[in-house]
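Input sequence (64 aa), recorded before submission:
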Amino acid sequence: MTTIKISGMRCQHCVKATRQALEALAGVSNVSIDLDKGEASFEGEVPLETVKEAIVKIGFAVVD
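Predicted structure, token format:
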């Protein structure tokens, strides 16, 4: 399981948008979003850069 920190998520709409963006990536499964921690966890063999691009595209930032 891979976990990334995301800044900018504020509500359940943000959680839903993030989940949908990650689930739309080929090879990503078991997406879990923790709004309180500002984290997204997922399984899959996807380049981290691809994941970051999907998050940025919907208006959030990945914290390294």
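Checked by second reader. Residues 2-63 form a domain with the Alpha-Beta Plaits fold (CATH 3.30.70.100).
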